[in-house]
Structure formats: C-alpha cells, structure tokens
Amino acid sequence: MAEDDFLTIELVSPLEFAKKKIASLQEYSLLAAQSVANLFRRPLYVADTVQQADLIGFGSLPIVLASVFFTGAALALNSATTLSRFGAETVVGQLVSVGIVRELGPVLAGLVVAGRNASGMASELGSMIVTEQIDAMRALGTDPTKKLVTPRVVATVVMLFFLTILGDFMGLLGGSFVASLLLGLDSHEYWSNAWQTLVYSDVFMGLSKPLVFGFIVATVGCYYGLSTKGGTQGVGRSTTEAVVAAMILIIVVDVFVTRFLMVVLGS
Amino acid sequence: MATPSLPAEAPLATGQSGANDVIAFEDVSIAFEDKAVLEGISFRLPRGETKALFGVAGSGKSTVLKLALGLLKPDSGRIRVLGQDISGMSEEELFELRSKVGIVFQESALFDSLTVRENVAFRLTEEGDISEDEIEKRVREALSFVELKHTVDLYPAELSGGMRRRVAIARAIITQPEVLLYDSPTGGLDPVTSTTIVELLVKQRDVSKTSSLLVTHRLQDAFIMATHYFDRQTNQMQLLPKGARGEVPMSFLILRDGKILFDGDAHQLAQTRDEYIREYIS
Questions:
Q1: What is the total count of domains within chain B?
Q2: DSSP state for residue B246 in the 8-state scheme
Q3: Among A132, A133, A141, whose Cβ lies nearest the Cβ of B99?
Q4: Are residues B68 and B185 in the same domain?
Q5: Cα–Cα distance between B247 and B9 in angstroms, integer?
Q6: Is residue B33 in a domain?
Q7: Where are the domains of chain A?
Q8: B257 and B118 part of one domain
Q9: Which of B148, B146, B71 is nearest to B103 (CA)?
Q10: How many CB pairs under 8 A join A and B?
Q11: I need a labelling partner for A119 at 20 to 30 A (CA). Which of A47, A63, A221, B251 fits?
C-alpha cells in the first residue's frame, strides 16, 4: 500500500451519508423483526439456544454480580453522605433499593452484557462472514438468521432478565455491607426499609428493562457481525462498533422506556 | 506436474440453450458499489457436462458461482438452475433448490466450531428427518470417498489445507447433488496436494456423472481433468488414450473484465487465435 493511501480521506456527501445510515437502520430493523418472526417457524434450534444461554448467562454472571454489588455499595456511601445532613441515614436502604431495582441494576447488567456479548457475537459472526461460513450455511440450506441470530436473541433476553434479578440482590447486598459495616446502621432495618419501599411498579419497571436491553444487545451484536466487510480488520471494526452502538442504545432507550413505563404504570 | 497438451477432439455442440441445461445464464450483469463485475454474460451448462471457468483474479469467477447458487442476486438478466428461474426467488424458495446443488468454497468454509463429522453431516442433520444411524453411514461413505475416514472426530483447525478441501468435497457430495460447483478447489495448495484434489474431482465426475462448474485460475487443473479419466479397477486417475474422449464432456469458459471471452470445448480452445487466450494457455 502506498504511503499516500493512509492519508486519503474519503469524502462523502451528506445526502449519501444519510442514505447509508437509513439503509443500515432498515437492515437492522429487518434483522430484528426476522429474529422474532423466526420463533414461529421451524426448526427452533433449542440446543443452540441453550448453548448460547450458557455462554451468555453463566459467562456474564461474575462480572454482572461484581459490578452491581460495588455500585450498590457506592450508592449507599454516597446517599448516606447526603442523608446525614438531614439526619435521615436510616433510609439508605430505601434509596439503594429503588435506585438499584428501578435503574442501576438493569442498566449496569445490560451494559456489562453488551460489553462482553455484543462484541463476542459481532466477532464470531463477522469471522464467519469473512471465512464464507455464512455463505456455506446458506448454500447448505440453512437460514443463518434462524440458526445464529434467533438463539442468541432468545438466550440474551432470558438470561439478562435473570442476571438482573441476581444483580439487584447483589446491589442491595453491597449497600447492606456499607450500611452495617461503615455507617453502623442496623442490618435488619436496612433490609426491611429496602423491602418495604419497593412497590409493584418499581419491580415491573426493573424487570421490563432487561427484556428490551437483552434484545438490543443481541440484535446489535448480530447485525454488526453479519454486516462485516473487509477481512480481519473489518471484524475488529464490527466488534468495536457493536459494543459502542449497543451501549449507547441501552442508555438512550432507558430514558424512553422509563418515561413510557412511568406513564403506563402511573408512577 | 507439466501442463498436459489439449486433446484435439471433435468439437462439442455448445451454445444452444435447451431444457437439458442444469445452469443457464442469460445476459447477466452485476456490479458492486458502481464497479461492474459481470457485464451481460450468457452461458449454459448442459446436464452431465463439466465446465471449467477461467479468469485472472478479480474477473468475477467466484461471483458466477454465488449467482448460480442464489447467494447473490443479479442486477439484470436471468439465471436458470435445474430448470427454475432463480433470479426472483426468495431465500426460502432457494433453500429447496440448494439441496440439489453442492458447492466447495475457495477456502473450504468449514464450520470451525464443528467436527469433521458434524461438518459433513450438516445438511442431513438440518433436514431433521434422517436417523442418526443413516447420517453416520452416509458421513462415513462421503469421507471414504475422499479417503479421510480417520479424521471424523477432528476439528477443521487440526487438518491441513488439502484435507480441509477434501472434507469440503465430502460435505458437498453427501446428498448426491445434481450439480456441483467448485470454487478454486486447488487454490493455495502445493502441486502434489492439488493433484490429489483434481484426482478427486475426476473421480466424482466419472463415478457420479454429476454436472459441474469448476472455477479455477490454474489451467493445468482443467487440462488434467480433460485429459484423464478415473479407472475404477485400479482406483486411480489414468491418462486418456490419444484421440479418445472421456465419458463426461468437458468444456471451457474464459472470463475477462467481466465478459465472456471464450466458451467452447478443448478442440475449439486449441484452435483459437485470440492472442489473450493463446498467451493465457501457453
């Protein structure tokens, strides 16, 4: 490659750029819709789904639990500092509980799973694209979206749901350690405050979000993997783009889902 | 191995479209990002014939195979495979047709997370209604054909390049397809391994009489195929007697800059006066 090639920047007109982005969005939407539609078409690839659930769920378990545990602990520390100004340190449990269950548990679990699995999916499917394994699969009469995408989507949605439940518990546990060991609060009071403050809408909101985030992680990871172009360099690019896109989407969609559920649940 | 000279046999009847064609391209064009790869190409592969497709790198050879399998859609023109127009077929409709067509990809394209057994059995397993015993029997038959029975539990990464190609051939032939497409099956292999692969292609051609489209940039592969036959008694490839024609007709197609430069049999190729072709085959 000539040295000049490294300095060459391809100029694209805004219209062309917009067209490409819209085409990408259309392709992503089609893939996402197809991954759901495949649930109603045979074969269902149960074994592949279970395998993915193992990779995604159990593989992500330690990092999700650790992230939410320490976030719960940090949340307890920070909220105690503010609450002590009003002499209300005893309600730390309530703040940690609502913060973790409604917001931080699902978002953190989603971000961690996105970092670990959207990249994994993009690189795995991207490698299959550049080595013609996806073409081979189609040539052998198998729909790659059915065999590769749908099992990953189902596995991620289901496992992120359960990871969030476990993560929420660990977040509360992290808060409990800080409350009892550093702040000298009564552990029983912390847990009863944390438990009693939760209402149906908090739990519903906290457990609805991982379903959406899981769908985003898997479809974005698979989309970038299947759109890989340009050999091994392209695989690296797809992997990075998948993680960035999945994380940004989770953070942005979280706002809309929160607002939507607040309106629906009236909370 | 030295390139064998072309057999100067009587010409085959090529060029006329018919119901007996397994593959027929009619004025097919395709471009990638405004770069024309194929421009209005037309050719046909009659049933039972082997056609070798030549061209320099980037001339669109592999694209022809992907179009024939419906993995790519042409921008214009019509493609008929086994009597069906595939140009407007949906992916779901193509899956049915693809069960009758086998393909060996350029770099084998074996599934690296599956064993050789699982790779070869992939199509049968996906069909879902074949017993495990039947699958195992057919896998062993296909692997026996390519003389790789002992690799059944290995992963592709544990095989040499030549072995991977042979497994890819076993995967392509396990369902006894009506048409076989080979995408540079000897590309990147050493001369000895290449000859082993060509011998397998000759064996498949002469034993099963499957129609084939062979993409290659190595003329000598096609010339070996045109000048040899598979002797079932010695289980070896043998040179055809001078002037004799093989049981399966063989023709040649040369692509240049996305267009067909030559389409004919060995006799016509030997007689051509086109300077580019003469230089190419010399």
A1: 2
A2: -
A3: A141
A4: yes
A5: 13
A6: no
A7: 44-256
A8: no
A9: B71
A10: 50
A11: A47
